[in-house]
Amino acid sequence: MTETVESLFDNGLERYKAGEPVADLIPVFKQVCDRAPKSSAAWTCLAWLYLLDNKPNSAYKAAQKAVKLNPQDPQARINLALAMLETGEKGLREHVDFAHQLIFVNQEWREEVEKNIADGFSRKPDWQSLAKINNWLFAS
Q1: Which of 22, 42, 49, 90 has the fewest Cβ atoms surrounding its Cβ within 10 A?
Q2: Cβ neighbours for 6, distance < 8 A, ≥ 6 positions apart
Q3: In sequence order, which residues have a C-beta less than 8 Å from that of residue 85 and are 6 or more positions away?
Q4: Taking Cα atoms as reference points, which of 12, 21, 68 lies closest to residue 45?
Q5: CB atoms within 10 A of CB 107
Q6: Domain ranges in the chain?
Q7: Could you tell me if 118 and 75 are in contact, meaning their C-beta atoms sit under 8 angstroms apart?
């Protein structure tokens, strides 16, 4: 029996939360994206995993798809900005500013982004690009 896209996605998230190596999870989320190419959440997760695995070019492509599918997702915008920062792409400030506006008006999104940033630092403590984005979003 083939696993549903939803169960594959949920299983991948649980494995991530359990601390499974990022490199082992990338194929899982690639499969989710292949089977559900219009899933912004799947592309957002794949971009995050690529960023954690030091693959900013792949992260950039995945994050672009996530933002295109759901421009109102602050985490997708943050992932895109991180990938742009790490690849030297121009125009990242617009994505940071838009994410900032989104988390300013929605407390749940803000808490989710704060949790994700903390998770990023726990997995990649010296992540300079994440430190910059965090500062841009939350330093006032």
Answers
A1: 90
A2: none
A3: 92, 129, 132, 133
A4: 12
A5: 9
A6: 5-138
A7: no
Q: Is pLDDT of 107 > 80?
A: yes
Give the tens place of pLDDT for each residue, 6-64: 999 999 999 999 999 999 999 999 999 999 999 999 999 999 999 999 999 999 999 99
Query: Per the structure block, which two tokens stand in for 121?
Result: 């630092």
pTM of the model: 0.94
Task: Compute the residue count for the chain.
Answer: 140
DSSP class of 3: P
* Cβ pair 39, 5 in contact under 8 A: yes
Confidence of residue 140 (pLDDT cuts 50, 70, 90): low
Other CB atoms within 10 A of residue 3 CB:
14
